[in-house]
Design a protein that fits this description.
This is Yellow-x. It is found in: Secreted. This protein is α+β, with helices and mostly antiparallel strands. It has one domain: Neuraminidase. About 15% of the residues lie in helices and about 35% in strands. The strands form nine sheets. It has a four-stranded antiparallel β-sheet with strand order 1-30-29-28, with no helix packed on it. Strands 2-3-4-5 form a four-stranded antiparallel β-sheet, with no helix packed on it. Helix 1 packs antiparallel against helix 7. The longest helix is centred in the first third of the chain and has 21 residues.
């Protein structure tokens, strides 16, 4: 035990020295400002008659349409519109990056036809997406709609859908998840990060109430498996109660947010990355190395990865979405505090957390983040607590997108390290951070 503590101390010192000597100064930051806001969400309809037809048949119920996820590519912001309630005509859409209107209408993506309810070749329930560095969009389609109604409808199998945006054809490749890792009645594909190494991997949170876990998908052979750990992936009673601006709600939700850190060298000179995650109803942030999740032989038994999971510590409040930038800075919301926070992952989590925005009027339930190619971060704020309680008022602003300049890009553009011995390979100071994580994992096992 003493030797491991000594190793952790040395590793911490090495990581700090690396931070002090090689990391560039933080870029100038701007305050977050509102760029888009809506009372209700409307769409670009084929014709006024189509809108009226949807309204008259309850296929479009404005107060039931909520923005959740966000991502950037080209000239567009892609928004996810999960079909939690009836009356959501499209579940994935775009708005322009360049602001023309403060409340733009959403354009269904890839098309209206590709969002038709009940067609398993079309998108049914998209909670989140990711766009990797190669221009491939990774879409989580739960297949089950009406998750906040009395009778959720499992119309189609939970699937991963891929679209090559660079081609411009917007053709969808659908890969249903096998039944041993996803259940049409209980699976809830929540968030995703993409690791463009070794044939492309995705790490996906499933906050199923009965079988939470991280689904790992390997694109090279389209194989997927599920990693489970009740201790770190489940909600806890003391964090299931939320109170925002006088409104209280109880949401015992399991593993939710997920983020992917930069590459680093391990003790044996291999390249790895750290996956960060947290349940919605928890104050803790957890970490595990991507190499552990990639090991499909580790087994799906609950707790099989527990010796490798690190409890990094607690946050001031619960977190829904979070996103890593290309330099290893994690952005996340603190729901109960109406706060946006950040953490430089080269600094100890207990002392490195920093509030960068707080406003009880404008920051009411931070959901998801994205980065553009100009050094800006965007945040979706959607007052989810009102939506869940069916208390959406169409006379108030319910959905906002905030923007701030950070000078960085998404984690998908983080530096690609070269294996040891390859010309141009990075030096080994980053070894300190990986050793620290390894030592802590053993200490906490």
């Amino acid at each position: 035990m003493l030797s491991l503590l000594f190793l952790a101390a040395i590793a911490a010192a090495a990581a700090q020295n690396d931070t002090q000597t090689s990391r560039p100064p933080s870029p100038r930051r701007e305050q977050f400002r509102v760029i888009y806001e809506w009372n209700v969400i409307d769409f670009e309809w084929p014709s006024p008659g189509d809108r009226e037809a949807y309204l008259s048949t309850n296929r479009y119920i404005p107060q039931n349409v909520l923005i959740s996820g966000i991502n950037f590519y080209g000239e567009n912001l892609f928004l996810t519109v999960p079909r939690m309630m009836d009356g959501v005509p499209a579940t994935l859409a775009t708005i322009p990056v360049q602001q023309i209107d403060t409340a733009p209408k959403l354009k269904p993506f890839p098309s209206w036809e590709d969002n038709v309810l009940g067609n398993c070749s079309a998108l049914q329930f998209v909670q989140n997406i990711e766009i990797d560095k190669n221009g491939v969009m990774w879409i989580l389609d739960n297949g089950r709609v009406g998750t906040l109604t009395q009778k959720p409808d499992p119309k189609c199998p939970p699937s991963l859908v891929l679209i090559d945006l660079k081609s411009g054809k917007n053709e969808m490749e659908r890969i249903p998840f096998p039944p041993e890792i996803s259940n049409m009645n209980t699976t809830y594909l929540n968030d995703i990060v993409v690791d463009n190494r070794d044939g492309d991997y995705a790490y996906i949170t499933d906050n199923s109430a009965v079988d939470p876990g991280i689904i790992v998908f390997r694109r090279s052979d389209k194989k997927s498996w599920k990693v489970r750990d009740t201790k770190s992936m489940s909600s806890v009673p003391e964090a299931s109660a939320f109170r925002i601006n006088g409104t209280s709600i109880n949401l015992p939700v399991n593993i939710d947010g997920i983020a992917l850190g930069p590459q680093f060298f391990t003790a044996d000179d291999k390249i790895d990355r750290t996956v960060y995650y947290c349940p919605l109803s928890s104050y803790h942030l957890y970490a595990v190395n991507a190499s552990v999740l990639r090991n499909d032989s580790i087994g799906s038994t609950d707790g099989a990865i527990r010796p490798y999971v690190v409890d990094l510590g607690t946050k001031a409040s619960q977190t829904d979405g979070m996103k890593m930038d290309s330099t290893g800075v994690l952005f996340y919301g603190l729901i109960g505090n109406s706060t946006i926070a950040e953490w430089n992952t080269t600094v100890d989590f207990h002392v490195g957390q920093r509030t960068i925005a707080r406003d009880p009027n404008y920051i009411q339930w931070v959901d998801r983040f994205t980065f553009d190619d100009r050094g800006n971060v965007y945040v979706v704020v959607n007052r989810l607590y009102n939506f869940v309680k069916n208390q959406v008022s169409t006379s108030e602003v319910n959905y906002r997108i905030l923007k701030s300049h950070t000078g960085t890009k998404s984690y998908v553009y983080a530096e690609d390290l070269k294996p040891a011995g390859v010309p141009g390979a990075a030096a080994a100071p980053t070894l300190g951070a990986s050793l620290l994580l390894l030592a802590l994992a053993h200490l906490l096992a």
